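Entry 14. Ran structure prediction on the chain below.
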Amino acid sequence: MIRTGGPHLVRKGRVMARSPGGIAGVGVAVVLAVAQASPATPAQTNDYPTEARADYVFACMKTHGDTQVALRQCSCSIDVIATLLSYDRYVAAQTVLSLAQVQGRFGAMFRSPEPAREAVKNLRQAQAEAEVRCF
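Output, structure tokens:
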């Protein structure tokens, strides 16, 4: 991270607002964003950046095999997930899953709040639906 002149941090070309509550404040902000997010609408189904879709497909293919069939199934899977969750909700749920693996109090912040559990539940449901439709 590179510190800028203001209350922001820059990481890989992205500006992140610095929270007055430090890391804990960021965690709370993520959880609150998840709680306030709404389901994906048809207009939002294409709000996933190409890079995010490609990352998902590559990771999925590592699990299901590096074949043409897996490519089609994994592409279908992210398309289904995109119809069920907005990109913001998808990122928030992935963030909660990632940070919940951290040991100690910091990880516990992401394992225990109800909005965090709800975000993960919604992602898991979308993934299950994609599994049924595509595999």
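The two ends are 40 Å apart (CA to CA). Will compare against last week's run tomorrow.
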